[in-house]
Design goal:
heterodimer; A: alpha/beta; Rossmann fold; six-stranded parallel β-sheet; 19 helices; globular; B: mainly alpha; 4 helices; 76% helix
Chain lengths: 465, 92
């Protein structure tokens, strides 16, 4: 009877999770959706506490549960409330890591506890162990790179990297087969975790900066798959349903990100983009004598006569934390009767949706945040496009030069607007390491400055003008 | 083996449901989708609860560590998602 009650509650929780994610299909229903998901989680936890095994665990077991939940809740709440919106990619990387780690640990606990586990359980345990440890360490490397701690942001390559990865993967599968044939060998599970951990690190270090959106989305998918395979370990439906939802979500995002860069998943994973990926056009040749530097006052005059202005934010806006100033600029222009919209490239920033969250934080109406395909046809009717800290996603070379490392990547067609203002600290290349002819175009002016300071100066100049 | 096929059936169907819903999430909300799906994948918390309660030193230790990590995911994930989705609004 009790187990029927628990299973029924799990079913209810699964339904709430699905409705919860469905709520995220529109900003109007997103808050409610998230609350539905949280309610589902609470129900699932309460039902599990009623399980005989948990309820009858004795004072020590219950004490440990209370301590673990309190500790985890404190850390989780602190992280969630303290984290800055610009650091959201790091937060998601950490959450991916913890999800993968939890799955690998649970699978290990089940293996250690079971006297004579069924083959299905052991196979699923091996899968949880490998996917979980790869996710844990891969996500920590991603976190480290995003936070700028020990590892460089750019790709790390060394000789025979791919061969080593293949060997490690083969070793992991071999260890897995050994565990299946003799599940009492806990040492071999430990070894499996070590191999998975090394593999996780090695798979993520060749991924750099602007490719991070793909890596984070993919690790998100892995953490879901790890949870699903833990569901197979525990014979538990709700873990399988939830894990596959998350796995699907991560895979879809990965696919969207790859498409937005016109690159295959393999190409991103092998870290094949960068300065060493072919002949690069000489920067001097592109820029010499053609780049026009401008002042905030001149830009203010340009904006004064504009009927329609489009703002293009990039990772540079996040680095300069300039989203609030950008909002002030947009409001000021709107007060003067100018139409203002924001053009958001799918891979602008370091994770899917990064720019949208920053501008939402600054209270920009979400209707003004326009997707690439949606806004591209309107650049021809745009008087001034202001680019803040974006580079590769507005590089027209993607359309014109088939030998370029970004050839075929869909870009924002900013060069079609009447005037382009680029706010940037220098002419330094973006992640792709190539010069951007947009900066030398006849209709482009460069405002060389830090993003936040430039926008502040611009606001002052407009007010004085 | 007798439980494997029903579980695999559920897995496959859930993947299809996931693909159907998630392709409808607009790029505007992709970051909350990632943090929200992380929160939901903290459902491993129930596996951790069972492991802690299972008794035996090693399972208890591993289960306790998993419980802490999964709770961080659940609490941190839902809270940070709430912070984000509450920011998306229309001016009126």
């Amino acid at each position: 009877m009790l187990s029927v009650f628990i299973d029924f509650t799990y079913l209810l929780a699964s339904v709430l999770f699905i409705f919860g994610i469905k709520g995220l299909t529109h900003p109007r229903t997103a808050v409610r959706g998230n609350l539905l998901g949280a309610t589902g989680m609470l129900l699932a936890v309460v039902a599990t506490l009623a399980d005989r095994q948990v309820f009858g665990a004795g004072a020590q077991g219950l004490g440990l549960i209370l301590a673990g939940v309190l500790l985890g809740a404190t850390i989780g709440a602190t992280l969630a409330l303290k984290i800055q919106m610009t650091a959201m990619p790091q937060m998601v990387a950490l959450l991916n890591a913890f999800g993968g780690g939890a799955s690998a640990l649970i699978a290990g606990a089940v293996l250690a506890d079971a006297a004579d586990p069924a083959t299905q359980t052991v196979v699923a345990t091996v899968a949880s162990g490998i996917i979980g440890s790869v996710t844990f360490w891969g996500s920590l490397v991603a976190f480290d790179k995003l936070q700028g701690l020990m590892l460089p942001d750019n790709p790390v390559h060394f000789p025979a990297q791919q061969a080593l990865n293949v060997i490690l993967a083969v070793v992991a599968v071999g260890l897995g087969a050994w565990i299946v044939s003799d599940p009492s060998q806990l040492t071999s599970y430990g070894l499996l975790i070590v191999v998975g951990s090394v593999l996780g690190v090695l798979l993520t270090i060749p991924i750099g900066g602007a490719d991070m959106p793909v890596a984070i989305a993919l690790l998100n998918s892995y953490s879901g798959l790890a949870a699903a395979s833990t569901g197979f370990v525990l014979n538990n439906n709700i873990l399988i349903i939830t894990g596959s939802l998350v796995g699907a979500s991560g895979l879809i995002l990965t696919q969207i990100m790859c498409k937005a860069m016109n690159r295959s998943l393999m190409n991103v994973l092998l870290g094949a983009i960068g300065p060493d990926s072919g002949p690069v056009q000489d920067a001097d040749e592109v820029y010499a004598g053609r780049v026009k530097s401008t002042s905030p006052e001149e830009v203010a005059m340009l904006l004064d006569g504009a009927r329609r202005v489009v703002i293009v934010p990039g990772y540079g806006m996040a680095v300069a934390q300039a989203q609030h100033q950008v909002r002030d600029l947009a409001n000021l222009l709107e007060e003067q009767g100018t139409e203002v919209e924001f053009a958001i490239h799918p891979v602008a920033g370091r994770m899917p949706g990064h720019m949208n969250v920053l501008l939402a934080e600054a209270n920009v109406d979400y209707d003004k945040l326009r997707e690439m395909d949606d806004i591209n046809p309107s650049f021809e009717q745009t008087d001034v496009t202001v680019i803040i800290g974006a580079n590769d996603i507005v590089n027209p070379v993607a359309r014109t030069d088939p030998s370029s490392p970004i050839a075929g990547m869909p870009i924002l067609d900013v060069d079609k607007s009447r005037t382009v203002v680029v706010i940037k600290r220098s002419l330094s290349p973006g992640f792709a390491g190539i010069p951007n002819p947009l900066f030398a175009a006849d209709n482009t002016v460069m405002l060389f400055a830090d993003g936040k300071k430039a926008v502040l100066d611009l606001i002052t100049a407009i007010k004085d003008g | 083996m007798d439980t494997f096929l029903p579980l695999l059936t559920i897995f496959m169907l859930a993947v299809f449901v996931g693909v159907e819903i998630i392709t409808k999430v607009p790029p505007l909300l992709h970051t909350p989708l990632m943090s929200g799906s992380n929160a939901v994948s903290g459902i491993t918390i129930i596996g951790a609860l069972l492991s802690v309660a299972a008794g035996g030193t090693l399972p208890t230790i591993l289960g306790f560590l998993a419980l802490v990590l999964a709770t961080i995911n659940v609490v941190g994930g839902f809270l940070v998602t709430h912070r984000m989705v509450a920011m998306f609004r229309k001016k009126d």
